[in-house]
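stage 2 :: seqdesign
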């Protein structure tokens, strides 16, 4: 039997088969990404065939894929980011899009705090030194003694604020929209946050407005000992400019979990004071399970003709239309 559902995201059902079992109970046949890695758009186009529903990851999903999938009715994204999905092309072809925006938030927020502590205390340097036979005690800083700036106060950024404020340091936040902030958090403009923060953590979506947000010019305005953390999306930080700033000693360090091209193999891997992780922000067992199960639930509900609460809201399509200059 030909697969009705194509599962492109990897891993899938690794720790808990409940999402797969939900498809089986619904009588939906499925195929799991045979490459075992993030697909290129051309590879995905070669796989979609006659599938009706897709449980998708971060691979690019645009016109090339849609044109190769005449029966596709729904793309159900495992995760919160939508920058890899051409929403307007999907709408033109009558393809619905769902996502799981709440699932990854706790895991990404906690990883962010861990990266902050590691950068400030030099944990990654001490670990590397010990493995190389070097005993060196690193003098660091505590969160209570620095100013933390959070850029973007949505689902994840708001969690980061709640986690970091109990440490007792000064906390700044910037968002393009008015937000309710925890007690003690100061709402500031972007320039003030960049100028006064010792730790800057990025939590905005990748859009036309945020692409290249942390350019060479912006990086040059940060404190010389500031550390920058990006667990949001690749493309928000100019990776080449970041590498130049780190090599030139114009930043204290950086932690990057997301990249413009993934898997990443660029210049940052050669820079010791850049802590790199492999887009693993959401990879806690509980959050990964929640994302997978919610994405499958959307497919099952859609196939049954039921209401799908995980549908991408109209505001995301409007934002995409604005990014494209009104062309749809």
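stage 2 :: out
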């Amino acid at each position: 039997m030909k697969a009705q559902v194509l599962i492109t995201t990897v891993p899938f059902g690794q720790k808990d088969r409940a999402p797969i079992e939900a498809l089986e109970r619904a009588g939906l046949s499925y195929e799991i990404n045979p490459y075992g890695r993030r697909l290129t758009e051309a590879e995905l186009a070669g796989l979609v065939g006659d599938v009706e529903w897709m449980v998708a990851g971060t691979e690019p999903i645009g016109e090339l894929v849609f044109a190769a999938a005449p029966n596709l009715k729904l793309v159900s994204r495992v995760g919160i980011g939508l920058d890899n999905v051409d929403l307007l092309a999907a709408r033109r072809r009558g393809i619905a899009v769902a996502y799981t925006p709440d699932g990854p938030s706790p895991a990404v927020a906690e990883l962010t705090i861990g990266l902050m502590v590691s950068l400030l205390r030099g944990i990654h340097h001490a670990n590397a030194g010990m493995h190389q036979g070097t005993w060196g005690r690193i003098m660091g800083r505590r969160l209570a003694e620095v100013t933390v700036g959070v850029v973007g106060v949505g689902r994840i950024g708001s969690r980061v604020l709640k986690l970091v404020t109990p440490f007792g340091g000064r906390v700044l936040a910037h968002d393009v929209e008015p937000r309710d902030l925890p007690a003690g958090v100061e709402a500031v403009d972007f320039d003030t946050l960049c100028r006064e923060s010792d730790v800057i953590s990025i939590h905005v979506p990748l859009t036309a407005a945020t692409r290249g947000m942390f350019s060479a010019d912006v990086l040059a305005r940060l404190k010389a000992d500031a550390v920058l953390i990006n667990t949001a999306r690749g493309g928000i930080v100019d990776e080449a400019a970041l590498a130049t700033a780190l090599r030139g000693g114009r930043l204290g360090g950086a932690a990057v979990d997301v990249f413009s091209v993934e898997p990443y193999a660029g210049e940052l891997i050669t820079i010791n004071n850049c802590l790199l992780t492999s887009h693993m922000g959401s990879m806690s067992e509980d959050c990964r399970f929640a994302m997978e199960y919610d994405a499958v639930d959307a497919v099952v509900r859609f196939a049954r003709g039921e209401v799908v609460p995980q549908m991408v809201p109209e505001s995301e399509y409007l934002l995409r239309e604005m990014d494209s200059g009104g062309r749809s």
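stage 3 :: structure notes
- The two ends are 36 Å apart (CA to CA).
- The chain has a mean pLDDT of 95.
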